[in-house]
Amino acid sequence: MELYNGGTIRLAEFVSHRPDNDILVSVIIRKRERKIRYASVRRTATDFPVLACAVVTGLLHGEECWYVSAGARPMRASLLEKGWKISSDTDAEQIAAYAKEAAEESSYGSNMRGSAGYRRHLAEVLIRRAITSIVSEEAEI
Question: S-S: 40 plus which of 49, 55, 80, 104, CB 3.0-4.6 Å?
Answer without folding.
Answer: 49
